[in-house]
Write a structure and sequence with these properties.
Length: about 550
């Protein structure tokens, strides 16, 4: 990749752009910044590329967006050459894809692996970030593109005695590379979000016993996963560009859209078949059948009723089904899980559900988990206990802008951003798929492409105008954040205790973090800001 070096020739800098993370967002940032001629250094905590798909290698891990959509759109030949084998790709296949992209575009050579950014402070006189790496090195860069993931800081729950357990202890979000066997073991799993729900059925197949410790049940819709045969693949290839166009014009970054009609105008028979079709689309798409499904409780109640019947039709024991059906949130307002045989697992003789609402965990002991009513002896204990989502990773880096405030301090009362991409007080720092952007509510790969392209456009604009610094204006960030809040408040999402709301982390400000107005609307907002000369941003030298 070659191109004009459009940055000022500043020998005091180690690179123009420092990219944090080698997941899909970071890899694309390195590729795109290089293509524009910037010198780039990437920093990655893992020993290879892949990000989320590098760390979350637990059995059963799959993406809940279809593989043909959850893949890069920036290079037509890449899109043509990479052949997805299944509708929903497994973690090994997605990781192999990330590695293929890194090889194909020779991206690894820009990275320092097994390294972390510990801190960074902005030197206003030099218009540069001084970046402190965890192992001691320092780097100076004009720009930082922070692409370290929305779900990348796992939570180790504060349960008494957690370090006393004498058996094998595993975290789904830090799963070892070596093969883990469950054969003949008594396995316990704490957590019934997407991660717990994906791995439980596989563990149950070979474990002597699986005990699922459930604090809150979650809605889950089967993936209806299947192989992608050659004829279907040929059809996808023939219409890929149209599929991508629809994705960028959609709410969620894939070509699926809601039925535009008002549900009450549709007779009951047709409604039932629309719900059935929505169910068969699988996973999160069940939340996107009718426009008001996650806005109007009456519409949502119909969807909940439908899902409840599906669960009851699977789980043979009625009281067990009662425990597995959520009663605390509207369906879709916590991310619907996408499973392969989760509810069926509870029909097995070797699987036990412990309802922690009735029988809470008292402590973890050397032998296993002690709840109020029983002691559960275990050989292996797995934690699928979630992440400090969306803000957890960036606030753990000690970023200091010119005012000396850290990101954690700046966001103590909730994240404030301009378009999700820049934070007032932190010039020349872009956050990719962060709070205030569509982020986890859209296809993360297409979202990352759009963010990175927009950020690089703003960088080029800054330099072409003869400036070295750009920062989001505080009033613009306040207005954008208020807009993000206002759209979320019109939905049922703000009523659920979800990680979208920061509700899974003690002491975290409760606020709906992602922009819920849809991918297409967000792109329009970004383009409007650009068209007005990057209104809401202030430039300086
Ligand atoms: P989630 O969805 O945050 O799930 C975490 C689960 O762990 C959830 O069931 C929690 O129960 C449970 N949890 C957390 N702490 C505890 C303690 N101390 N005791 C018992 N149970 C606990 O994380 P995932 O990794 O499954 O999925 C994250 C996203 O990745 C997912 O939404 C997809 O987008 C992909 P709680 O609900 O808090 O009662």
């Amino acid at each position: 990749m070659t191109g004009p070096n459009i940055s000022p020739n500043d020998n005091s800098l180690d690179c123009d752009v420092l990219v944090v993370g080698a997941g899909f967002a970071g890899l694309y940032a390195v590729y795109a910044a290089r293509r524009l001629g910037h010198s780039v250094v990437g920093i990655e905590a893992g020993d290879d590329v892949g990000g989320t798909w590098y760390w979350n290698r637990y059995p059963g891990a799959r993406c809940d967006v279809e593989s043909i959509d959850y893949s890069y759109s920036f290079d037509a030949e890449l899109q043509r050459d990479w052949r997805w084998t299944e509708r929903y790709a497994t973690q090994p296949e997605i990781l192999a894809y990330a590695r293929h992209v890194a090889d194909r575009f020779k991206l690894r050579r820009h990275y320092r692996f097994n390294e972390r950014v510990a801190a960074a402070s902005f030197d206003e006189a030099a218009a540069a970030w001084t970046v402190q790496l965890a192992k001691g090195d320092r780097l100076r860069a004009r720009w930082i593109i922070f692409a370290a993931g929305s779900l990348s800081t796992p939570i180790r729950p504060d349960i008494s005695g957690i370090d006393d357990f004498a058996g094998e202890m595993l975290f789904t979000a830090r799963w070892p590379e070596e093969r883990v066997t469950f054969d003949g073991k008594r396995v316990g799993i704490i957590g019934t979000g997407a991660s717990g729900i994906q791995c439980a059925p596989i563990i149950a197949q070979t474990a002597a016993k699986l005990t699922v410790f459930q604090r809150s049940p979650n809605y889950s819709v089967p993936a209806f996963n299947r192989a992608l045969p050659d004829d279907e693949w040929a059809e996808i290839q023939a219409s890929y560009s149209e599929r991508r166009r629809q994705s960028f014009a959609s709410g969620g970054g894939s070509p699926h859209e809601v039925d535009p009609r008002e549900i009450w105008d549709i007779d009951e028979g047709e409604r039932a078949s629309l719900f059935e079709n929505g169910w068969k689309k699988g996973g999160v798409l069940f939340a996107k059948i009718f426009p008001k499904q996650t806005m109007d409780e009456r519409v949502n109640a119909l969807a909940r009723d439908f899902a409840e019947k599906k669960i009851r039709a699977i789980v043979r024991d009625e009281s067990l089904a009662d425990d597995l059906i959520p009663t605390d949130h509207a369906i879709g307002t916590k991310r619907i899980c996408t499973d392969s045989g989760y509810f069926e697992t509870f029909n097995r003789d070797n699987v036990e559900l412990v309802n922690l609402r009735r029988d809470p965990i008292i402590e973890i002991t050397e032998r296993g988990v002690r709840t109020r009513n029983a002691s559960h002896d275990l050989d292996m204990l797995i934690f699928a206990t979630g992440f400090d989502a969306m803000t957890g990773t960036i606030t753990r880096v000690d970023f200091r802008g010119p005012g000396g405030q850290s990101m954690a301090e700046a966001w103590a009362d909730g994240p404030k951003t301009m378009l999700g991409l820049m934070v007032p007080g932190f010039p020349n720092l872009f956050n990719i798929t962060g709070p205030g952007s569509p982020s986890v509510l859209t296809n993360m790969i297409l979202g990352a492409e759009q963010h990175v392209n927009w950020a690089l456009g703003l960088m080029s604009h800054t330099q072409q105008k003869g400036y070295t610094m750009v920062e989001a204006r505080r009033d613009a960030a306040d207005a954008w954040t208020a807009h993000v809040d206002a759209i979320a408040s019109a939905t049922l999402f703000t009523q659920a205790k979800s990680w979208y709301m920061g509700a899974n982390v003690d002491g975290k400000k409760r606020t709906f973090m992602p922009y819920i107005g849809g991918f297409a609307a967000y792109i329009r907002e970004c383009e409007a800001v650009r068209a007005e000369g990057y209104k809401g941003f202030v430039f300086a030298s």
